[in-house]
Every structure is written in structure tokens, then in C-alpha cells.
Specification:
Elements lengths: L1 H60 L5 H44 L9 H7 L3 H31 L11 H47 L10 H9 L1 H30 L2 H22 L32 H6 L15 H5 L4 H21 L5 H9 L7 H22 L4 E2 L5 E2 L8 H20 L3 H13 L3 H6 L10 H21 L5 H16 L16 E2 L2 E2 L2 H4 L8
Antiparallel strand pairs: 1-2, 3-4
């Protein structure tokens, strides 16, 4: 009898969430979708003249390319910007419709995972309404940061970077070849990727349904917990939309895969190898989709070799040291998604550290370290205000680059001292190879960070060297502020060791600079700066700022705020 009651409750919850979710999708989703579509399209069209000017100016000024290469890029700019306009506006429409349609609906189903039974139906109605509209504004804000801040930073780095020693002369005959290969890549990849995705979509549809229904009957994977059954039921219902989304993603990826043929021609200095790449990428995509759909291995498409030399079996961007660039090329085209054959339970998934936890933890640590530096007058309120006023944050490098670098260095040093196998963050959250988020973006950074941590551990930095490294990452080229901070830092007398410390500083700055261009970073870092500005303003009737509540404890004693800033490796 109890089983029937539970089954009826699940059916009732599913129908209720489906009904309320549909209503919210129509009412709230239309507003949120319009905000994303109009906002992103307005940003693209409004900044389009500036993007054209910035790009053309960078191509003329940079020393990374020779004259024929610059001519090739300039000739290709009209086509590239036309593709940018088409894909960005089309992508804005897809994101706006998808976000506005799915977010309120999923929120209605997620409400039934609440522990409080009496509030489940209340959350089913309320969740995903105002939050979805605010989220759409956040999407537009992050997209604006990418277009207005991140893209100019990429161009500035390209202008200021020295000429590459590996730059090979590019003859004008190659310009025509790059144009031809790029056009052929679009002509070949777009229709064939579309045909492959469409032909395999029925198999993906029915096999996905089969897997999800099998899990439902056997109570495996997402159906293991009763509270998650409504959400999983929505997955079964919406699986055709996932299939359609996979086809659209395959078509979108074909644009970039096809244009990359011009890059292969430039790298290999061979028109024949550029054409071989165009042909081989069709076979790569066919093989990749076969792997994800558990079909036969390989492909009947020809797969000519387009590289002269075999690439190394190691790469810095892979967590597994035996990965190859060939495997990265195989993973370039987005596959049509399939439910995993070895589905894990929800509890097993929850035990993993999530990417959002890492982001929130790093942001909180940055705020804590900023308050410490403010308490010791290492950074000032004027530094924070300079960041808010400076265009792209470039005029306030101490806050824009130095503060996150200092925070990142302290995290690594603390992890080394604690003997952690990974990174030890706030609240004793440890990110290791075993529990790290299975996220491609994190994979690109995790292994280089672990390499840097191992380098610092092997060097065995002395206390004075650690203090010197702290000043180097915080102030960079600002020699005046570097000398003014008397934290006990001593420059190594050994020139080799000094060069190693300088190398650690450059790698740290490079990693943070790369992260600063990612979506959501500038918005989150802006919130940190605002919090630090508010913290730096003395409250009424008080001449000094309050001491942060997170006091470092070491050896059983509580240290003062001034001494905390001079300690390099302590538990937060």
C-alpha cells in the first residue's frame, strides 16, 4: 500500500510541476528570452564598428605576423565578421529561447527536492520566476564583459607581444591558399556535419529514451532517489529537444572546424595538407559521434594525414599525462549527447566538487585576502577606486592582476604546507584529481596549477624568498610600491634561483590573466572590489575598520591582523 501511495505522489508531483512549469515558461520565459535576445543582439550591433576598428588596428600594429599574413587576415576580415554577426545573433536567439523556456520549467521540478514537504508546492510556483529574469540580465552583462573587456584584452596582448622566434616567412602565394582552404572548409564541413548529425539523430533519440526508461524501471542513475524522479521524468519528456540541440551544436561547430583549415595550411605551409585536414575532420566527427552513440568504431570516410610530424604524447592541458593532441582534435566537435552507459547515483555525483564551488571559494578567498591587505595598508582605497575607473581594469594592475595573483599564490603555498595532494581552499575544501569537477574548462588549468605547485614544493622556498615572491606577484612592475612594502622579502643571491622565482611569478600572472578573460569573472571580481571599497570606508564613529572574523590560527595562538598579512602559508 505504501508503494502505491508513493507512486501516486510521484505522478501527482510530476503533473503539477509539468503544468506550473509550462505556465512559467510561457509567462516568465518570454520576458527573459527577450532580454537575452535584445540585449546580446544590441551589444553585437552596437560594438560592431569598434570591433572592426580594434581588430584591423591590431593586425596592422602587431609584430607577431609578417606582411603577407597580415594581408591574408585583412582580406578575410569581412567574411569573418559576417560569420560573427550571423552566429552571434543566431546564438543569442537560441540561448534566449532555451534559457527562458527551460529554466522556469526545471525550477518547478527541482522544487520537489525540498526537504520541507509543506513548501514544495510553494517553491514549485515561485522558483524560477524573478530569478530567471535576473539571470537573463546576468547573461547579458557577462556577454557585454566579453565583448567590451575580454576581446580588447586579447587584442592588446597580441599588439604588445614580441615577434615569435618560430615565425616562418609567409609568402603571398599562401594568402590565396588560406582563403581557398577556409572557403572549402565551410563548403565541406557544414553540409556533411549537418547530414551526419541528422542521420544519427533518430538513433540518438530512441537509444536515449531506451536508456532513460531502463534506468526508470530498474531505479538506477538519476532515478535512484525518489525525489529526483520528477526531474528525470522531465528529461525523458524533453529528450527530443536535447537531440535537436545536439544537431544545432554540431552545425555551429562546423563553422570553426572548417575555418581552422586555413590555420593548418599556415602551420604546415602546404595547400595539400590544408585540404587533407578538411577531409579528415569529417571522418573525425563521424568517429567521435560513433563513440558517443556506442556504434561501430572508425569511419568509412577517408582520413588523410595532414601533419608532417607526429605530435607528442603529452600535453599541459590534460589531467592524464598520456593524452595527445590527436585526442583533443577528436573532442573538438561537440558530440551528440547520450546518457552515460554507467550511470551514477545522485548521491555519488553530489560528493564531487562542483565548478561553482571552486568559483565561489576562490572569489571568497580573494575578498578575505583583500581585507587583510587593506588592514595592513598594503593596498589602499584609491587602488580599488582606480580599478573601477580604469578602462578594462588595465590602469589598476595592483588590484586587477596583483590581488588575485596574491590570493592564488597563498592558496598554493598553503596547500604545499598542508601536504595536500591537490588544492586546499576555504572551509577545508580540497580539490584533487579524484574529486575535481569533470569540466573541460577546469582541465585546461588544473594540471598547469598542479605543475606549478609541485615546482614550488621541490624548490623549498625559504621564508625571505616567499615574502619576495609575494611582493613580485602583488606589485609586478610597480617598483615604487614593491620597495615600499617592507614584508621581509629578500631577493635570492643565486641568479638561477632568482630566475626560477621570477618564472613562478610570470606563470602565476599568466594564469590569472587568462582566467580574467573568462565569462562571469569580471562581474564577480567587480563585486569583490565593491565589497572591499565598502570595507575600507570607516564606519560612523569609528576611525578604524573592523577586524575580519576569519582570524588565522597557528600553533594554538591567535595572530593580529598586521602579522597575518606577513604570514604566507596559513590556514584560512
Amino acid at each position: 500500500m505504501e508503494g502505491w501511495v508513493k507512486a501516486l505522489y510521484v505522478v501527482f508531483a510530476f503533473c503539477t510541476a509539468l503544468t506550473f512549469g509550462a505556465l512559467k515558461s510561457l509567462l516568465v520565459g518570454s520576458i527573459a528570452g527577450l532580454i537575452v535576445i535584445l540585449g546580446n543582439a544590441g551589444i553585437v550591433l552596437g560594438l560592431f564598428p569598434a570591433h572592426v576598428f580594434w581588430t584591423a588596428y591590431t593586425l596592422v600594429k602587431t609584430s607577431r605576423f609578417d606582411a603577407p599574413m597580415k594581408v591574408a587576415f585583412l582580406l578575410a576580415l569581412p567574411a569573418l565578421f559576417a560569420i560573427w554577426l550571423g552566429l552571434s545573433i543566431a546564438g543569442s536567439v537560441i540561448v534566449g529561447v532555451g534559457y527562458g523556456f527551460f529554466t522556469p520549467w526545471v525550477s518547478a521540478f527541482e522544487a520537489f527536492r525540498q526537504d520541507n514537504e509543506s513548501k514544495k508546492f510553494f517553491h514549485c510556483i515561485v522558483d524560477g520566476t524573478w530569478g530567471t529574469i535576473l539571470g537573463s540580465c546576468t547573461v547579458v552583462q557577462d556577454f557585454a564583459d566579453i565583448c567590451y573587456h575580454s576581446y580588447p584584452l586579447y587584442l592588446q596582448e597580441l599588439r604588445e607581444s614580441p615577434a615569435s622566434l618560430e615565425l616562418q616567412p609567409f609568402r603571398f602565394i599562401h594568402v590565396l591558399g588560406c582563403i581557398i582552404v577556409g572557403v572549402m572548409g565551410l563548403v565541406v564541413e557544414i553540409p556533411l556535419y549537418t547530414v551526419i548529425a541528422v542521420l544519427k539523430s533518430p538513433y540518438m533519440l530512441f537509444k536515449g529514451w531506451y536508456r532513460l526508461i531502463h534506468d526508470l524501471i530498474s531505479r538506477e542513475g538519476p532515478f535512484l532517489e525518489t525525489a529526483c524522479i520528477p526531474v528525470a521524468g522531465l528529461t525523458i519528456l524533453m529528450w527530443p529537444l536535447v537531440v535537436i540541440g545536439s544537431i544545432i551544436m554540431a552545425i555551429f561547430s562546423s563553422f570553426f572546424i572548417g575555418l581552422y583549415g586555413a590555420v593548418v595550411l599556415y602551420q604546415e605551409r602546404s595547400f595539400r595538407r590544408g585540404l587533407a585536414y578538411v577531409i579528415a575532420m569529417v571522418a573525425e566527427f563521424d568517429e567521435y559521434t560513433n563513440d558517443w552513440l556506442y556504434l561501430r568504431e572508425g569511419s568509412f570516410f577517408p582520413k588523410p594525414r595532414y601533419r608532417k610530424n607526429k605530435v607528442s604524447n603529452t600535453t599541459d592541458f590534460s589531467v592524464r599525462r598520456n593524452s595527445s593532441i590527436h585526442s583533443k582534435l577528436r573532442s573538438a566537435p561537440p558530440a551528440m549527447l547520450m546518457p552515460s552507459a554507467s550511470s551514477r547515483s545522485v548521491r555519488e555525483v553530489i560528493q564531487e566538487v562542483k565548478m561553482v564551488q571552486v568559483w565561489q571559494n576562490m572569489i571568497k578567498m580573494c575578498e578575505v585576502r583583500g581585507k587583510e591587505l587593506l588592514d595592513s595598508d598594503v593596498i589602499t582605497q584609491s587602488d580599488l577606486e582606480d580599478w573601477s575607473k580604469a578602462k578594462n581594469g588595465n590602469g589598476a594592475s595592483i588590484v586587477n592582476v596583483g590581488l588575485p595573483c596574491y590570493t592564488f599564490l597563498q592558496t598554493i603555498l598553503h596547500s604545499v604546507k598542508a601536504g595536500s595532494d591537490g588544492l586546499l581552499l576555504l572551509d577545508n575544501l580540497e580539490v584533487t584529481y579524484l574529486n575535481r569537477p569533470r569540466d573541460r574548462l577546469l582541465d585546461w588549468f588544473f594540471q598547469p596549477v598542479m605543475d606549478l605547485k609541485e615546482h614550488i614544493k621541490v624548490m623549498g622556498l625559504e621564508e625571505g624568498e616567499i615574502r619576495y615572491l609575494e611582493k613580485a606577484v602583488l606589485f609586478g612592475r610597480n617598483t615604487e610600491r614593491f620597495k615600499a612594502w617592507e614584508n621581509g622579502g629578500l631577493a635570492p643571491q643565486d641568479p638561477i634561483r632568482a630566475a626560477q622565482i621570477e618564472g613562478i611569478s610570470r606563470r602565476t600572472v599568466g594564469m590569472i590573466t587568462t582566467v580574467s578573460k573568462l565569462p562571469t569573472y569580471r562581474r564577480l571580481f567587480g563585486q569583490i572590489v565593491k565589497a572591499l571599497i565598502a570595507y575600507s570606508i570607516p564606519t560612523e564613529g569609528c576611525s578604524t575598520r573592523p577586524i575580519p572574523h576569519c582570524v588565522h590560527k597557528a600553533a594554538g595562538s591567535t595572530r593580529s591582523v598586521s602579522s597575518r598579512t606577513t604570514a604566507s602559508i596559513e590556514v584560512v
